[in-house]
Fold each of these.
Amino acid sequence: MTGLVADAAAPALPGFPRPRARPRELGLLIAIVAALSVGSLSLGLLRTGRLEPADGPGLLLYAVGLLVAHVVLVVAGRRLDEVLLPAAAFLGGIGLLVMERLPQDLVVQEIGPWTLGLGELQLLWLGMALVVATTIAVGFRSDRWLRLYKYTWAAAGLFLLALTFVFGTDANGSRLTLQVGPFGGQPSELLKVILVVFFAAYLAENRVLLADARVRVVGPVTMPPLPYLAPIGAMLALALGIVVIQRDLGAALLFYAVFLALLFLATGRLSDAVIGLLLFAVGFLALAALFPHVQQRVATWLDPWADPLGGGFQLIQALHAFARGGLVGTGLGAGLPEIAGRPPIPAIHTDFPLAAIGEELGMTGVVAVLAAYLVLVERGLRIAASSRDDFRALLAAGLSLVVGVQAAIIVGGNLKLIPLTGITLPLVSYGGSSLLANAIVIGLLLALSDRGAPPPEPPRRGRLVRFRRRPGVAS
Amino acid sequence: MDAGLNAALWVLRFAFLALLWLALALMARALIRDVRAASRAPAATLGRLVVMTSSGQPPPGAVFALDAVTTVGRDLGSSVVVDDPYASAQHAVLTFRGRAWYVEDLRSTNGTHVNGAPVAGVTALAYGDEIRIGDVRLRLERGRG
């Protein structure tokens, strides 16, 4: 095993590694493409009355994209997880079918000589997402550049968000989109990945202090020493402050939930979870007192029928869609009656794709989508559990939780379980920023799952946390 | 809509849902297999010491599963015996105290270094840290993997 050190010192591109077959991934991808083809056939039969797929070329391109991604991973020869890509492809494929089924003029963009509709644009974004995910999975070798420059990353992310706040374009009363030339994007989607990297790096570096040098608050409730909580708290407060002012409540909820989950994972202290949840309750009450739109969201959630044509409109339509769908749905293409050529839910392709799935594929389809998220989160947590150091463990856990929590927030909102906050359904919703950010997550998780990778280098600095355990310190 | 078309639509609708769940079942089977394989793997330990470089015994690449109190030194009674001319007989002790590992130098002649800095008193370790004793470099890793 003298190779341990030699591997770590080897150049980043050591020629061509030996390909490694990934039969499990291939089998799953084939099963998924088969399922999607049948779905496309059912949509095509309903539309044209002939047995032909609704959008044959689109589906074929998606299948080819998946195959290329699979082949690239095989050729790369790394021992990466084989279920992550199929689980993501499952969600992406269902999203693609839904986007092809919805009215194509919901989003129209002209790129050069082509005018692309909703389904074609989603396919384009999915293709780019596959490129991003496989590039990261194959190219990500060392976590140094993530770990060492954590403040730089966080500052860049916050700067981007602040830029959006100043120069962004308004949509639905919130300023979330940054337009640079023809390209528009929502930086808060990217910020969620950057924040997870920062949280993981900071918590890994200070884990022992945060977990063991406790300060007593009340009775058995303890908290980490404040000076070591301050940097991460300040970063969280900045991120939350910006997104709350931007009225991006879904992102605020997501950031806080992921922060709390990672803090609890790092310290393993129940006190941290209790204090965090109490702070959340206090913060929520304060927000509700300060901002009328928070009160309005809660009122809409409690009783959407109070204002059926205004604030409660989308939610009521979504609930009706789920009710029409029932157990097995109306079938692709048979649901979603249009009002004057528009679907009743204006944001169905971004915030409410689950309502479309619920209506046309029924509860069976909705539960299938939720199960796919469960598979993703389970894989991520398994990768975290088998990581060899703290940073990789926390990063893998944080990345999988950010997808899982985001799905839970928007699914809960669509089903009127929690107040609705505008946020995308990861990997299913239409949208480039959302798809690319989640592609980065999948790519990083794949790279972190590499079981044959050389061990990461130890922290570069000699800085070491030193303290003696005093009898007065609670433990 | 004629009856034949209607029947075909019904078949395709349910075939689509069934195939979606088949794909999920295949994924679930992969997960269950991995869980089974993990449960057959050696039980998780509190931590592992991996030898990165050394001049003699233990050889580089050797892995030690750690007990809650692990002594390191040249003495044959140590939990991890380090045969290095610059190591003391009782060189250092690693202790796991509930949530984290700590290392303490046992007044060795040449000292114990963590990530290049000499250890004074009881010092907290993080997984991934590198401990140097004499010319032997050891890396603390999480217990599973």
Amino acid sequence: MSKQTLISIKDLHANVGDTPILKGLTLEINPGEVHAIMGPNGSGKSTLANVLAGRDDYTVTGGSVEFMGENLLEMEPEERARAGVFLAFQYPVEIPGVNNTYLLRAALNAVREARGEEEISAVDFMKLAREKMKLMEMDPGFLNRGVNEGFSGGEKKRNEIFQMAVLEPALCVLDETDSGLDIDALKIVANGVNSLRAEDRSFLMVTHYQRLLSYIVPDFVHVLAGGRIIRSGDKDLALELEERGYDWLLGDAAA
Amino acid sequence: MSLEALRSQSPLGEEVPEWRRSERDATLDALIRDGFPTRRDEAWKYTRSEAFRNFVTEPKSKTAADVKAIAEQARSLIGDQAAGLILLVNGVYCSEESDLPEGIQISARDSAEPTPLAGSEAALARLALALAESDLTLNVAAEVSIENPIHIVHYAGPGQLAQSLMALNAGAGSDIQMIEHFIGEAADTPAMSNVWWRIALSEHANATLHRHQQLPSDALHATRIDATLDTGSKLIAFTLDMGGALVRNDLNARLVGVGADVTMNGLYLTNDHQHVDNHTRVDHIARDTISNEDYRGILRDHSRAVFNGKVVVHEGADGTDSSQSNPNLLLSDNAEIDTKPELEIYADDVKCAHGATVGQLDRTALFYLQSRGVDSAVATQLLTYAFCRETLTHVGDDHTRRLAESLIASQIPEFTVLDIIE
């Protein structure tokens, strides 16, 4: 592993229940890079995203994941978050009774503590939150509601990117963030993501469609099928997939 | 010992009017005749009444209570935003320690209860009617509006049977908030508290009754509320049960006036071998009446809870809007909940929704919080608290709600984040 690699996934195997989903996935991401993972339904895209965040519905059965030199697989989900891994959920959860502001501030302070920074003051926090909400074109009233409570599908996705913008993680994992978004919402989400692109921040975007990649242009595109990456390329691979589908690659993999 | 022995326990003095004496005698006769409910009584299928019965037939020795000290405890409990205090020590009304705002008067009843209590299921209410030490009716004059809550503190000392008859007559257009506290003192001998409320709301009256039950863990507690709501009136009842070994609450609301609106919420937080039973009943009698009900519980250890929510929409009660839910979190394999919604509808154009769930904390929500850097222990507390707090949505003003919230938070081990949740 080279010194600047942010995350190094080697021969990763993972199950849901007794069913193997990931079957030897290998991927390296360097700081500042944007990687897109595409692939047919059931290929393991969301599994990869969730395994990286530490969801316990998935069991890792083999391989390794090093994140900034640490063994990511041994960390609790909250430890991963504090270390700089952020998962934007495919289906963000509604949590009535837990206030958005409260959660976000607790999350930010947990991350800051891990970075050795002081707690953010209430005033500075509100300033930061307002600024980032503006970026995501969100109504500040959302802050006073329960987490994702009564949000539309698009609002939930925007809220995920908003949280990401506040927390400034090193690795942003986006699990089908484009699903269920109309074109205007997609542009806002893409705009938010693009504004976060930085030399010290990387992205792993799981997506079904090339559409998202027209707005967030990836450095690398990988095709995941049967739990492994069967083809990698640049953004042109996504365009080719859009045109030709996955069958020609799946044929290759079988042969 | 037999119920017959209760005849010697009468608290009535010489100067008691004749109607009261005959009411007491008739009630005792009925109680002795019908006895206490058994498991063959549908409403007592999951809760045994023996502990209540045995308590009243084997009276403990009376101990003198330090009323001054209890009054002090009561005042610290209610804080500084109180419109008044009604203190009852072992069922006895302490007028010298109580105070009430202008527009509200306390009186004793001047006639017998109009509707006789029927059957063994009414045993506890009969017991209160026959033998309660106090008989208080709060009269709120028409159009009187009291901003801060009036606190009613019931203290039940060790070994004591603390019984009160309570009534509220809320005049037309009046607005009142009450918080009722049930407290005691942990000792070797358990206490029993038993209260029967009758609430009558006149046209367009608003009343809120929060009930915070924090009796010692060995206490017995029974309450019954019979409320009648006239046109356009609104009742909010919130019942929080935290203490007691055996608790039985009956809450009945009759919506007799057009547009009457009742909210019945409750929360039971049980552990050890606690048993908490909530039976509620709403009768939609007039048109366009509304009932909203959300009872929920968190059960730990070997504790057990019962919820029975009956809604009857009578003929002619068109436009009824009724919702009921009873979610439960079972946090132990040995805890048990018996939940039963009952709907009877005899009218058209009616909206009724009900649902009961039994489960654990939402794992996806837990993971979501963790994935944002929140400790799994803190995430668990947050979700537990949030679950409880849902019962307090729209029930009372900020002050009243906060009082309940801090009680709930105190029940969640090591929970410290209350102040930053708003």
